[in-house]
TrEMBL record:
Residue span(s) of domain RNA polymerase sigma-70 region: 38-103
Highest taxon, organism lineage: Bacteria
Lineage of the organism: Bacteria, Pseudomonadati, Pseudomonadota, Alphaproteobacteria, Hyphomicrobiales
Name recorded for this polypeptide: RNA polymerase sigma factor
Stretches assigned to the RNA polymerase sigma factor 70 region 4 type domain: 147-198
Molecular functions per Gene Ontology: DNA binding; sigma factor activity
Matching Gene3D superfamilies: 1.10.1740.10, Winged helix-like DNA-binding domain superfamily/Winged helix DNA-binding domain
Length: 240
């Protein structure tokens, strides 16, 4: 296990501004603040990556934690040939896919399908930089996010991983291919098909919803009727 020394009581610069390349040597020496910065810097990407494979929030968190422990206990093996984020993403993918393989080997197919059906009800919280101006706006954003998350969850495993890495995490085609161990051309093909499946899923969820657009009933409808009746009455009295 990596040994984390007790930090000395002395002034040190803010290491949160350091690059990953500068943080790695410190982390290799067990520097706790450096390790903490690395974890906080890459948490969101790694969680999203694990969630793309596992489709369960709690288990995705376990995957990320296990991956970090593996990464920091074997950090000496990191030579800097790839970006730290790419290296960490590969570890997370291996950990997540390993758990999926174990589940498939030890659980009946019917039970797995039932688990996945229940997992589909959970949503992945995509942080938004926009602040809600009112509860109605926040509700609309939440509903839109849930719609997209459901569509992502419905993608087949291979396509979901590509979609999350490319569209959600904005990885390049080459970086996503490196993380997944596939060819860039395969990434492009799967992304194209994933986008098509996403559109179909969203259209299916929205089917029949257009009839509910621009509702005009209840008090609003009654108010217009009252105004029409009042206008007619005024016009009749003026004629008389």
């Amino acid at each position: 296990m990596i040994a984390i020394p007790v930090p000395a009581a002395q002034h040190r610069p803010d290491i949160s501004t350091l690059s990953d390349a500068d943080l790695v040597p410190l982390a290799k020496m067990g520097d706790e603040p450096a390790i903490r910065v690395i974890v906080q810097r890459h948490n969101r990407r790694l969680f999203r990556t694990a969630r793309a494979v596992i489709r369960n929030d709690a288990e995705a968190e376990d995957v990320v934690q296990a991956a970090y422990i593996k990464a920091f206990t074997s950090l000496a093996a990191f030579r800097g040939d790839a970006q730290l984020s790419t290296w960490l993403t590969r570890i997370v993918l291996n950990e997540a896919m390993g758990r999926v393989r174990v589940a498939r080997n030890t659980t009946g197919l019917e039970e797995i399908d039932m688990q996945r059906a229940s997992w589909g009800g959970e949503v992945l919280q995509f942080p938004s930089s926009l602040s809600a101006t009112d509860p109605e706006t926040e509700l609309s954003r939440s509903q839109a996010r849930h719609l997209l998350e459901h569509a992502v969850d419905e993608l087949p495993d291979d396509f979901r991983a590509v979609f999350v890495l490319r569209e959600v995490e904005d990885m390049s085609t080459e970086e996503a291919a490196s993380c997944l161990g596939i060819k860039p051309g395969t990434v492009k093909t799967r992304l194209h098909r994933a986008r098509k499946m996403m559109r179909q899923s969203i259209e299916k969820q929205l089917s029949g919803a257009f009839a509910a657009l621009f509702p005009f009933g209840g008090a609003r409808c009654a108010f217009i009727a009252d105004r029409v009746i009042a206008a007619l009455r005024n016009g009749t009295s003026e004629t008389d």
